[in-house]
TrEMBL record:
It comes from Fragaria ananassa. Catalyzes the 3'-hydroxylation of the flavonoid B-ring to the 3',4'-hydroxylated state. Convert naringenin to eriodictyol and dihydrokaempferol to dihydroquercetin. The keyword Amino-acid biosynthesis does not apply. The lineage of its organism: Eukaryota, Viridiplantae, Streptophyta, Embryophyta, Tracheophyta. The keyword Translocase does not apply. GO terms for biological process: flavonoid biosynthetic process. This is Flavonoid 3'-monooxygenase.
């Protein structure tokens, strides 16, 4: 017995030493380099007005893998394709959850949505529901007529704009919201179907933009929890008021839909979600009204303003580069002609247009700084210690402008994606990390395929159906500044005069 006890003790000591030495070795690894933090607030002052700009500047000094201390929170920033690949591919499973934040708590129904919900079985259920019922290839193909009809409504409205200047952002928002609305809830959410401006749609867009601005503000309470109750910036108060407005909007939609269930001509996503309140389809617990509203909130906010702003950036770049605009128009004329509008079936044949779309996503990614992820466990990246619980930020904007990856990265040059260009085979769907506008890995944007189709179709239609002149100034002086927010908005809306270039019957709607 004594001998057994001694052997057991020796084995325990060996195991303890092995585990202890391994832990010590892991802890002996240095944290990634970064700017020296200030007392208490840490590196919060380093973020500046445009965090993706400030972090890109810091990365040039400290390297593409940085460590920041925001209040009491460890933050690591990836600012190169190779570093982003380490986090989002090699260690993707370890970074599949979100850190706690006030935006998710106060605006996204306390983490009951798809975007901010912690990784786990319920999140996978939500992801499957959206993938199967809204974003699968079949679902997108079945409803392509909806997108084409709403884009035709947009073209009709622009063709009848007359001589007045058009705020393109307003009409793009109306088009994308109604296209998504018909898919989500079976009807247009705003407007009378004429494509003309709608004050309620403008109010909705302002709500979405406000949400993105508030979500982009580094809230001190998130990083210094003991100060959360003070709401020093007034951010939480604004979030709560905005959430009430969104909740009223979404509650009305859900309640109206419940009353009209069974009268719709086709099954929309909300009908499917409501059916899962009765039958969870073998995928887990039944959905609640709150969870349904949280999913609708994700779709209407993440799926509308990102698409419309990307189209606005694309058209602005083409107006700024008239020879590129002419080249896209020639390609469209050759493929489509002058007697009809573009359809989604035309898109695979528009090589130069697709290069323009890729270049727009590269230079103007809709989410320049990725939504944060959190390390479930400590790990090692490139010889540095990444602490458990640390927040990961991927600077998508900086990566897509990295001179180590791109020749003249600040230039808008679609030719780089054409055969013979510098990166003709780059995939923007999360497989090639030098341009990841939708993110990558498990938390890649669920609506990526829909977003690509919508952006491509709308951009192609606007370029094909109209010639464009600016309402004020010349293309060379077009303001290309960014506005602050979680998404990449233009600082100044694109004010333009459209002039038809197709046969008159092409602009008629059914």
């Amino acid at each position: 017995m004594f001998l057994i006890a001694v052997i057991t003790l020796l084995v325990a000591l060996v195991l303890f030493r092995f585990l202890f030495s391994g832990k010590s070795q892991r802890r002996s690894l240095p944290l990634p380099p970064g700017p020296k933090p200030w007392p208490v607030v840490g590196n919060l002052p380093h973020l500046g007005v445009f965090p993706h700009h400030s972090l890109a500047d810091l990365a040039r000094k400290h390297g593409p893998l940085m460590h920041l201390r925001l209040g009491y929170v460890d933050v690591v920033v990836a600012a190169s394709a190779s570093v982003a690949s380490q986090f989002l591919k090699t260690h993707d499973a370890n970074f599949s959850s979100r850190p706690p934040n006030s935006g998710a708590k106060y605006m996204a129904y306390n983490y009951q949505d798809l975007v901010f919900r912690p990784y786990g079985p319920r999140w996978r259920q939500f992801r499957k529901i959206s993938s199967v019922h809204l974003f699968s290839g079949k679902a997108l193909d079945d409803l392509k007529h909806v997108r084409q009809e709403e884009v035709a409504v947009l073209a009709h409205a622009l063709a009848n704009a007359g001589s007045k200047a058009v705020n393109l952002a307003q009409l793009l928002n109306l088009c994308t919201v109604n296209a998504l609305g018909r898919v989500m809830v079976g009807r247009r959410v705003f407007g009378d179907g004429s494509g003309s401006d709608d004050p309620k749609a403008d109010e909705f867009k302002s709500m979405v933009v406000e949400m993105m601005v508030l979500a982009g503000v580094p809230n001190i309470g998130d990083f210094i929890p003991c100060l959360e109750w003070l709401d020093l910036q007034g951010v939480v108060s604004k979030m709560k008021k905005l959430h009430k407005r969104f909740d009223d909007f979404l509650t009305a939609i859900v309640e109206d839909h419940k009353k009209s269930t069974g009268t719709a001509a086709h099954v929309d996503m909300l009908t499917t979600l409501l059916s899962l309140q009765e039958d969870a389809d073998g995928e887990g617990a039944k959905l609640t009204d709150t969870e349904i509203k949280a999913l609708l909130l994700n779709m209407f906010t993440a799926g509308t303003d990102t698409s419309s702003s990307t189209v606005e950036w694309a058209l602005a770049e083409l107006i700024k580069h008239p020879h590129m605009l002419a080249r896209v128009q020639k390609e469209l004329d050759d493929v489509v002609g002058h007697d009809r509008l573009v359809t989604e079936l035309d898109l695979p044949n528009l090589t130069y247009l697709q290069a323009v779309i890729k270049e727009t996503f590269r230079l103007h990614p809709s989410t320049p700084l990725s939504l944060p992820r959190m390390a479930a466990e400590s790990c090692e990246i490139n010889g540095y210690h990444i602490p458990k619980g640390s927040t990961l930020l991927v600077n998508v904007w900086a990566i897509s402008r990295d001179p180590a990856e791109w020749a003249e990265p600040l230039e808008f040059r679609p030719e780089r994606f054409l055969p013979g260009g510098e990166k003709p085979n780059v995939d923007i769907r999360g497989n090639d990390f030098e341009v990841i506008p939708f993110g990558a890995g498990r938390r890649i944007c669920a609506g990526m395929s829909l977003g690509l189709r919508m952006v491509s179709l709308v951009t192609a239609t606007l370029v094909h159906a109209f010639d464009w002149t600016l309402a004020d100034g010349t293309p060379e002086k077009l303001n290309m500044d960014e506005a602050f927010g979680l998404t990449l908005q233009r600082a100044a809306p694109l004010m333009v005069h459209p002039r038809t270039r197709l046969a008159p019957h092409a602009y008629k709607t059914s």
